[in-house]
Amino acid sequence: xxxxxxxxxxxxxxxxxxxxxxGRELRKAGIVSVADLLMHVPRTYxxxxxxxxxxxAPLDTEVTVIGRVHSLDSRRVRKNLxxxxxxxxxxxxxxxxxxxxxxxxxxxxxxxxxxxxSGKIERFRGRLQMKSPAVDVLSSPSxxxxxxxxxxxxxxxxxxxxxxxxxxxxxALRRSRPIPDPVPEPILRRAEVMDRDRAFSLIHFPxxxxxxxxxxxxxxxxxxxxxELALAMHKKRQELAATGIxxxxxxxxxxxxLAGLPYRLTPAQExxxxxxxxxxxxxxxxxxxxxxxxxxxKTVVAVAALLAGIEGGYQxxxxxxxxxxxxxxxxxxxxxxxxxxxxAEPVGEGASLGMESLFAGERKPGVSVALLTGTRAVLSxxxxxxxxxVIEAIRTGDAQLVVGTHALIQxxxxxxxxxxxxxxxxxxxGVGQRVDLKxxxxxxxxxxxxxxxxxxxxxxxxxxYGDLDVSVIDELPPGRTPIETIALPWSRQDEAWDxxxxxxxxxxxxxxxxxxxxxxxxxxxxxxxxxxxxxxxxLDGVRVxxxxxxxxxxxxxxxxxxxxxxxxxxLVSTTVIEVGIDVPNSTVxxxxxxxxxxxxxxxxxxxxxxxxxxxxTCILIADPTTEEGEQRLAAMVRTNDGFDLATxxxxxxxxxxxxxxxxxxxxxxxxxxxxTDFDVLEIARNEAFALVGxxxxxxxxxxxxxxxxxxxxxxxxxxxxxxxx
Length: 725
Ligand code: ADP
Ligand code: MG
Known about the structure:
This protein has 24 helices and 22 strands. The chain has five domains: 69 residues, DNA polymerase, domain 1; 105 residues, CATH 2.40.50.140; 76 residues, no CATH class; 222 residues, Rossmann fold (3-Layer(aba) Sandwich); 156 residues, 3-Layer(aba) Sandwich (Rossmann fold), CATH 3.40.50.300. Helix 18 links the parallel strand 19 and strand 20. The longest helix has 32 residues. The C terminus is likely disordered. By secondary structure, the protein is α/β, with parallel strands linked by helices. Helix content is 39%, strand content 19%. The structure holds adenosine-5'-diphosphate and magnesium ion (MG). Adenosine-5'-diphosphate binds next to helix 11.
């Protein structure tokens, strides 16, 4: 009898079968402990009672037959062709199996071993044969098959074949069972999962295939439950350790701001703003992820949240990933404040030229906004301010709302009283600067809102972002027309340019995005430049501009401004525009070699059009060279729904690649699959958070606590801290 956490500390080499080099091979493949071994579950099962006797198997139909290898032979028939032949007998009849150029079959099969062959039987010159059947070795020659009717086929690891695997796991189970269950009984009942000991026994050696599903469900539950417990405990500890701010917004600024908007918030925006407000009023610091499609109106909600903090005398900060985007936030926010009559009045030189006259008689205190990036420093109420003065205003609190790039977290920038911080991640996958911005709160942790336009399927936000609260703006403001998406081969590219000409003649604007070539920014720039020149000829009479990442910031901003002001009709760019350009007059997005882009990137780019009154079109020009590329294009044409696309992305790429850097925490998912086991994930998450809510350190469940510590310790620390630092 041994708990799973104890088994997690017993080296796999202690299992008799794996004492020598096989143990080393397992260890190399990450099967380090007996617990790892028990979680190495069969990839399939062969039900021997269901296999067909060779003589009775129908011809030319997929069947599985079981027999012993009677003879084995290989010969080279031509320079490039080796044929391996085996004769199999089930005691009554014989069958010849043939493989072409699969010489490893000779090593896999030994005379007298018992095998299951799957494939189609055909009759050839009066004899039965199977060409290139799939093989599962059930037992090696000397081995009696002690596993009953149903034979588990475990994934082999190096030279450790399913036969050895089966034997080793059998040994390990015999010595470990019964495996006690640390999960409280009521939780098991609600989750509708079986006892742990039974689950391990049945997944490896079922008496009946119908038991396997339920056994697996229990093990999947355990994996998710451990992960979610770890995340819940981490979150709880963070809350207890942090000194947060109990904001007491009086509504004075927020009300004016919202009343000044030329539109009403959508119900989704209202709901999310409520969720954020409740967080702000709690003493614990907020850690909230705000998700919403591009153009769903996240920014307005974020500004309202910042104003709630400012009402109570704190500062707010918005950090954007690029200068262009920071600049745009600054312009957008100050414009909204002017419209709402709440811009701080200019002081200092140039003040008399400012906008105060517009609001003469209004005399309400305004909100001062600062912009700080690597190259720009601006203070809304102090037109003449230089960089030093802007930094000083942030330090004294004169700058109430600060917009910027990473420059905000550089040395030398100090906040007076940072109360609410918004990190605009846009399309980026990851919660990068969170830790650093927190440190700016001078002893207290500001409330933190992370905005992302990457639709993160709930599967991921429950695991990867498991310690964050999540708000979703799941509807677009009214009046948007859906974007039409068309995929064109290069041979029909003219259709794209024709559309652009037509739209420009109606006064609309367009983007043309060139792909990143060879992962080289330099080559990328030259190819975008060449494309710019080519399009100037094709689109004769249309004003074409060019923007790319290597332009000096001032030039970049000038091009952007010209495009915003309608002085450029078509903007040719590298992917720099991906992040947050808001030009409602643009209606066409052409993406060249679109098959080379990731789905989330394509979706972000598409979101740049159709933001205004006019319907948008997205044209994907590509001659896809891979199946994945083709799948991505098809998905783009099929749906505009970002969450849908994100799930497709997960399917195409597999969860490992999507997790990327964070994979390490996730590779601990040995059995569960976040896509197909989503229902179990949800239950495990709810139960874990409820349990930790009542008992933060699981003091009443020491076995469970030990299991989480032993099996999840590093993974979770890594998942929630380093990955984001
Ligand atoms: P996001 O940050 O989510 O990409 P924005 O906040 O930039 O979206 O909003 C996109 C556009 O929609 C902006 O021009 C904004 O003024 C407008 N907008 C936001 N909320 C609403 C609403 N409730 N009704 C109408 N327009 C809205
Ligand atoms: Mg708070």
